[in-house]
């Protein structure tokens, strides 16, 4: 299996929106909306200071993606990353692709000068929690709160 990681290109957006649909179908708070996902991916890809979108490809076929968003922590006085999305196609899960994609994202964040990566995962997604714990992530005592500004209570 030849696995390679690269920056996503504009031509990848529809395919990546499809991967996000897979992710959002398994999450409890979000629902797939192809046009919204394409809009979000385009926004990130058009401004590299906002973040980076990366693909994982096996023999040239896109099988996964990860998105890092960048900001600055006032607590740390340093750049930090938010791991926005990590998804691997169901048919290739269990082959270590997600772990290698996560390692790649960690390396990118370090090279970007980030002092920390933060992420959210569903409370019942034990496989993802195990993956993150195996890569040095620890549960935070912080509790996420969210307020929609678009009228939807779940987004």
Taken as a percent bin, the fraction of beta residues is: 25-35%
The multimeric state of the shown protein is single chain
Summed up, the helix count is: 4
Structural class: alpha+beta
Largest sheet: 5 strands, mixed
User: How many distinct domains?
Assistant: 1
CATH class annotation: Alpha Beta
Helix content percent band: 25-40%
Tally of strands: 5
Principal-axis shape equals globular
Gyration radius over CA: 15 Å
What strand order characterises the main sheet?
1-2-3-4-5
Report on this model:
This protein is α+β, with helices and mostly antiparallel strands. It is 33% helix and 26% strand. The chain contains four helices and five strands; from the N terminus they run βααβββαβα. It has a five-stranded mixed sheet with strand order 1-2-3-4-5, sandwiched between helices. The longest helix is centred in the C-terminal third of the chain and has 15 residues, at 97-111. 21% of the residues are buried. The model has no long low-confidence stretch (mean pLDDT 94).
Short summary of the structure?
The protein has four helices and five strands.
Distinctive features:
single chain, 155 residues, alpha+beta, Aminopeptidase, 5-stranded mixed beta sheet, 4 helices, globular
